[in-house]
C-alpha cells in the first residue's frame, strides 16, 4: 500500500464526519426532524464530535447541538445531563471566534427554557467566561455572549443578580455604544432583562449610566433596536419614582412620542409601555406627559393598531386619569373617551375590555362633568351588558361593576341614565335611582321629561324592600310630584278606578 | 269644844254620808273619767295637730324660699349658657362666612382657577394637535427639543419621498425593460417615435437607455450550506462579494493571451479553500486521540447493543474470539508498538510523533494552471 492510499482513508473518514455533522446541523433547523433525530440518539453521537480533531467539525457539532437544545427543554436538559456544558465553558476561552459564537449559542439555547437550566449554566461557571467573551474583539462573539446573558437573566432575580455579580453590566453598556446595530439591540435587551426584576437590579443598571446611552438611541431608524431600547427604559422606569424621573430627565419627551407613530407594532407597544410606566408613578410625571402631548399621541397610537398592542396605551390613559381631575379632563379633551369606547366594543379579548373599562371608570369618577363626557359616548349600556353577560370573565365583571358605580355616582346626565332604569339589576339600579332622586328635586324640566318618557311609571313598578336605600330614593322622587300623578302611574290604579266606578251611586231624583 | 263634840257626833253620819255619797258618785265615776279622757285626748290631738300643721307650714315656707333660690340660680345658669351658645353660633356663622369667602377666593385664585384651567386645557389641546400633526409643530412653543423633532420629521418626510421616488423609478424602469421591443429601429419608427413629430416621446429615450429583459431561466436550486457565518446577523455581510449579474455575453474577447472573463472572475471571488494541512493542526489527530482515551464517556457512543434486523441470527450464540475469551486477560496484541516493549532504552521520554506529509497534488488538483495556461 502506498502512503497515498493510507491517507485516502483518513480523508474519507474526515469527509464523512464533516458531512454527518453538517447534515445533522441542517436537519436540526426543521422542527419536524427533531423527534426523529432525538430517537436516533443524536446527542450521544454529537458528544464525541465536540472533541473532534478538526475545528470545523467541532464548530458544526456545537452548532447542531445548539439548534437541538434551542428546540425544546428536553433536549436542553439532555445537553446539561450529558456533561457537555463544562467542556463548552472550558473551550469557550481557548478556541477561535467561530467556536466561541457557537458555544455561546448553545449556552443561550439551553438557558432560555427554564430557570433550572439557566441555573445549571451559572453553576458550571459559564458567566465568567461569557464576560470574557463580552470583551472579545469580534462583534459577533460579543453579540452571542450578550444574547446568552439576556436569556439567563430573563428568568428570575437570582439569576439576574448572578449576571450582575459577574460584572456583565458595564460591558453590556459598552456594547450599547458600539456601531453594530444588532449588537446594540441585543445588549439593550440584556439590560432590559436584568433591570426588570427588582429595583436594586435596575439601580445597578442605572448606576453604570445606561439611561443616557439608551435615550440617545430612541431616534435610531432600526425598528428592532428601538423595541429593545424602549423596553429597557420601561423596565428601568417601572420600579420607582426616582428611576422614572431619571428616565424623564434623559429628555426622552417628546422624542419618544415619535415612536408611537412608528410602522413597527412592537415599537409602538414598547413606547406606550414606557409612557405608562412613567405615568403611573405620580401626578407630576403624568402632568409632564400630558403637557408634552403624550396623551394625544397615545390615543392616536391606540387608534392605529389592534389587539394587545393597545393594552399599555389604554392602561396609560387610566393611570393618567386616576391621578387628578384636571388630568382626567386633559384625557377627555384629547378625545380619549371615544377611543376607549371603540376599544370596548371592538376588542374581542376580555383583558383588553377590562382595561378599557377600568380606564373609563377612572376618567368618569371625578366630577359630573367628567361623568357626562364618558356617558355621552354611550358607554353605560355597553358596560352594563359586559357586567351582565355570562361570557365575560370574572375580572371583567368586577371591573365593569366598579366602573359603572364610579360613573353613576357622579353622573347627572339624565337622558343617558334612563335606559338603565329598564334593564339594570337591583344593585346598579340603586345608584341610578339615587342619581335621579338627587337631580329631580332641583330641575323642573327634567321632572317633566321624566314623566313623559315613562321613567316615573318605571319607578313605581320597582319593587323595593321597605326601609331599604332604594325605597328611600323612590320616596324622595315621588315627593317631587303631585300625589295624583304618582297614584296614576302606580300599578293597579286602573283597577281601583274601575272599582270606584262600580261602587259609585249616581244621585237620581 | 262644842263643835268638836258636834263634829264627833256627826262623824258617824259623816262617814255614812261619805260612803253614801261616794257610792252614789261611783256609778258615774268611770263614765266621767272616760269622758274626761276623751275630752283630753281630743283636745290634745287638736293641739298636736295644730302644732304639726304649724311646723309644716313653716317647713314649706323654708322649702319654698330655698327652692326658689336654687331655681333662680339654675335659671341664671341656663340663661347664661343659652346666651353663650347663641353668641358662639353667631360667631361661628360669621367665621364661616369669612372662611367661605376667603377659601373660595383662595381656591379660585390658586387651585382651581377656572380661567387658568381653561387656558391650560386649551394649551393641552393645541399641543395634542401639534403632536398629531408633525408639521404644525413649529407653532408649538412648549417643546424644548423642538429642533430635533423637526429634524426627525423632516428626515422622515425626506426618506419617505425618496423611497417613493425610487419605487416609482424602479417600476418605470422595469416597465421600460419589459416593453423594450417597442423601441424604434433605424428603419421602422417605434410607436413612441412618431415621424410626424419633431421630437421623439420621452418614453422612447427611456427605452433606448433600458436594457431588455432576458429570458427567464429555470431557477437552480441552491444547495443549502451550513456555514457558521450565516446564523448571526452581524456577520452575514462578511462573505466575499458575489457578482449578481453575469458578464455580458456579446462582448468581444480581448485580444491577447488572456483568459476568459468569467474564469478570471470565478478565480477572483473563489471562496477560501484551505488545504487540509492548513485547515487542521499538525498533531490534531494525536491530541484528539489522547482526549478520547482520557474521557471514558466519549467511548460509549451508544449504550444499547447493536442488534441485527433479521431474526435469522437470533438463536446464534455469540462466540468470542480467542483473545477475549482467555481467562488470563486479553493480551496487548495490536495495541502496543514494538517501541513500548522496553521503554528503558528510550533516549527521551516523549513518544514519536506521527507527522503526515500533505499531498499538494491532492489539495490543488484542478485549481492550478500549468505553464501552458491549461488547467491541470
Automatic annotation (TrEMBL), chain A:
Signal peptide: none annotated. The keyword Cytoplasm applies. SMART domains: ARM. It is found in: Cell projection, Cilium, Flagellum; Cytoplasm, Cytoskeleton, Cilium axoneme. GO terms for biological process: epithelial cilium movement involved in extracellular fluid movement; filopodium assembly; neuron projection extension; sperm axoneme assembly. One of its GO terms (molecular function) is microtubule binding. Its main location: other. GO terms for cellular component: acrosomal vesicle; axoneme; extracellular region; microtubule; sperm principal piece. InterPro entries: ARM-like, ARM-type_fold, Armadillo. The keyword Cytoplasm applies. Keywords: Cell projection, Cilium, Cilium biogenesis/degradation, Cytoplasm, Cytoskeleton, Flagellum, Microtubule, Repeat. Transmembrane segments: none annotated. Interacts with SPAG16 and SPAG17. Important for structural integrity of the central apparatus in the sperm tail and for flagellar motility. This is Sperm-associated antigen 6. It comes from Camelus ferus (Wild bactrian camel). The gene is SPAG6.
From TrEMBL, chain B:
It comes from the Eukaryota. This is Spermatogenesis-associated protein 17 isoform X1. It comes from Camelus bactrianus (Bactrian camel).
Amino acid at each position: 500500500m502506498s502512503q497515498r492510499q493510507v491517507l485516502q482513508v483518513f480523508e474519507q473518514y474526515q469527509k464523512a464526519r464533516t458531512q454527518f455533522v453538517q447534515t445533522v446541523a441542517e436537519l436540526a433547523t426543521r422542527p419536524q426532524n427533531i423527534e426523529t433525530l432525538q430517537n436516533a440518539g443524536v446527542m450521544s453521537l454529537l458528544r464525541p464530535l465536540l472533541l473532534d480533531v478538526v475545528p470545523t467539525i467541532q464548530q458544526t457539532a456545537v452548532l447542531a447541538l445548539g439548534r437541538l437544545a434551542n428546540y425544546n427543554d428536553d433536549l436542553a436538559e439532555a445537553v446539561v445531563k450529558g456533561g457537555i456544558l463544562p467542556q463548552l465553558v472550558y473551550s469557550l476561552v481557548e478556541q477561535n471566534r467561530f467556536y466561541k459564537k457557537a458555544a455561546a449559542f448553545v449556552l443561550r439555547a439551553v438557558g432560555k427554557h427554564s430557570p433550572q437550566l439557566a441555573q445549571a449554566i451559572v453553576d458550571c461557571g459559564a458567566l465568567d467566561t461569557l464576560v470574557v467573551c463580552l470583551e472579545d474583539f469580534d462583534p459577533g462573539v460579543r453579540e452571542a455572549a450578550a444574547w446568552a446573558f439576556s436569556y439567563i437573566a430573563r428568568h428570575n432575580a437570582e439569576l439576574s443578580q448572578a449576571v450582575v455579580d459577574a460584572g456583565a453590566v458595564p460591558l453590556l453598556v459598552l456594547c450599547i455604544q458600539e456601531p453594530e446595530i444588532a449588537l446594540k439591540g441585543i445588549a439593550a435587551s440584556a439590560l432590559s432583562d436584568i433591570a426588570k426584576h427588582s429595583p436594586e437590579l435596575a439601580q445597578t443598571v442605572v448606576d453604570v449610566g445606561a439611561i443616557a446611552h439608551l435615550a440617545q438611541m430612541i431616534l435610531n431608524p432600526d425598528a428592532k433596536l428601538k423595541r429593545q431600547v424602549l423596553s429597557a427604559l420601561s423596565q428601568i422606569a417601572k420600579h420607582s419614582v426616582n428611576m422614572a424621573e431619571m428616565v424623564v430627565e434623559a429628555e426622552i419627551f417628546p422624542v419618544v412620542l415619535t415612536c408611537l407613530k412608528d410602522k413597527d407594532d412592537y415599537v409602538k407597544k414598547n413606547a406606550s409601555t414606557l409612557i405608562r410606566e412613567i405615568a403611573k408613578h405620580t401626578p407630576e410625571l403624568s402632568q409632564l406627559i400630558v403637557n408634552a402631548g403624550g396623551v394625544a399621541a397615545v390615543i392616536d397610537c391606540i387608534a392605529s393598531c389592534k389587539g394587545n398592542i393597545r393594552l399599555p396605551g389604554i392602561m396609560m390613559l387610566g393611570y393618567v386619569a386616576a391621578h387628578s381631575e384636571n388630568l382626567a379632563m386633559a384625557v377627555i379633551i384629547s378625545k380619549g373617551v371615544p377611543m376607549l369606547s371603540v376599544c370596548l366594543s371592538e376588542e374581542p379579548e376580555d383583558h383588553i375590555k377590562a382595561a378599557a373599562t377600568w380606564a373609563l371608570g377612572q376618567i368618569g369618577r371625578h366630577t359630573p362633568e367628567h361623568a357626562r363626557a364618558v356617558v355621552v359616548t354611550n358607554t353605560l349600556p355597553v358596560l352594563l351588558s359586559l357586567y351582565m353577560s355570562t361570557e365575560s370573565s370574572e375580572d371583567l365583571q368586577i371591573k365593569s361593576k366598579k366602573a359603572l358605580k364610579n360613573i353613576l355616582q357622579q353622573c347627572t346626565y339624565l337622558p343617558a341614565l334612563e335606559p338603565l332604569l329598564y334593564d339594570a339589576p337591583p344593585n346598579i339600579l340603586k345608584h341610578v335611582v339615587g342619581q335621579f332622586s338627587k337631580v329631580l328635586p332641583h330641575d323642573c324640566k327634567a321632572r317633566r321629561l321624566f314623566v313623559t318618557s315613562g321613567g316615573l311609571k318605571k319607578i313605581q313598578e320597582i319593587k323595593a324592600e321597605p326601609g331599604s336605600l332604594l325605597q328611600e330614593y323612590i320616596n324622595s322622587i315621588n315627593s317631587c310630584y303631585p300625589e295624583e300623578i304618582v297614584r296614576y302611574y302606580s300599578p293597579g290604579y286602573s283597577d281601583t278606578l274601575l272599582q270606584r266606578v262600580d261602587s259609585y251611586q249616581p244621585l237620581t231624583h | 269644844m262644842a263643835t268638836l263634840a258636834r263634829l264627833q257626833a256627826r262623824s258617824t253620819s259623816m262617814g255614812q254620808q261619805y260612803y253614801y255619797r261616794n257610792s252614789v258618785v261611783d256609778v258615774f265615776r268611770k263614765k266621767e273619767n272616760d269622758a274626761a279622757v276623751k275630752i283630753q285626748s281630743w283636745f290634745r290631738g287638736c293641739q298636736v295637730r295644730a302644732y304639726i300643721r304649724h311646723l309644716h307650714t313653716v317647713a314649706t315656707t323654708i322649702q319654698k324660699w330655698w327652692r326658689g333660690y336654687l331655681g333662680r340660680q339654675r335659671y341664671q345658669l341656663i340663661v347664661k349658657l343659652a346666651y353663650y351658645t347663641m353668641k358662639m353660633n353667631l360667631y361661628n356663622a360669621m367665621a364661616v362666612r369669612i372662611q367661605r369667602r376667603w377659601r373660595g377666593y383662595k381656591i379660585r385664585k390658586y387651585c382651581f382657577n377656572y380661567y387658568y384651567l381653561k387656558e391650560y386645557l386649551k394649551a393641552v389641546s393645541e399641543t395634542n394637535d401639534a403632536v398629531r400633526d408633525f408639521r404644525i409643530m413649529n407653532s408649538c412653543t412648549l417643546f424644548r427639543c423642538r429642533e430635533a423633532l423637526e429634524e426627525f420629521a423632516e428626515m422622515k418626510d425626506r426618506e419617505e419621498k425618496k423611497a417613493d421616488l425610487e419605487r416609482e423609478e424602479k417600476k418605470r424602469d422595469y416597465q421600460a425593460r419589459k416593453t423594450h421591443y417597442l423601441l424604434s429601429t433605424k428603419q421602422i419608427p417605434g410607436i413612441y417615435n412618431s415621424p410626424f413629430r419633431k421630437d421623439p416621446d420621452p418614453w422612447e429615450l427611456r427605452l433606448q437607455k433600458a436594457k431588455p429583459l432576458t429570458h427567464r431561466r429555470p431557477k437552480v436550486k441552491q444547495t443549502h450550506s451550513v456555514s457558521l457565518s450565516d446564523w448571526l446577523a452581524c456577520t452575514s455581510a462578511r462573505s466575499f462579494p458575489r457578482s449578481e449579474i453575469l458578464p455580458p455575453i456579446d462582448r468581444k474577447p480581448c485580444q491577447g493571451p488572456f483568459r476568459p472573463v468569467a474564469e478570471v472572475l470565478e478565480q477572483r471571488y473563489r471562496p477560501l479553500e484551505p488545504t487540509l494541512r492548513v485547515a487542521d493542526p499538525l498533531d490534531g489527530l494525536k491530541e484528539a486521540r489522547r482526549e478520547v482515551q482520557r474521557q471514558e464517556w466519549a467511548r460509549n457512543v451508544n449504550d444499547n447493543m447493536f442488534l441485527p434486523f433479521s431474526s435469522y441470527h437470533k438463536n446464534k450464540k455469540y462466540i468470542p474470539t480467542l483473545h477475549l475469551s482467555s481467562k488470563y486477560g486479553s493480551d496487548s496484541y495490536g495495541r502496543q508498538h514494538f517501541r513500548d516493549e522496553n521503554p528503558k532504552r528510550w533516549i527521551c521520554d516523549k513518544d514519536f510523533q506521527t507527522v503526515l506529509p500533505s499531498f499538494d497534488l491532492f489539495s490543488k488538483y484542478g485549481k492550478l494552471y500549468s505553464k501552458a495556461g491549461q488547467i491541470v
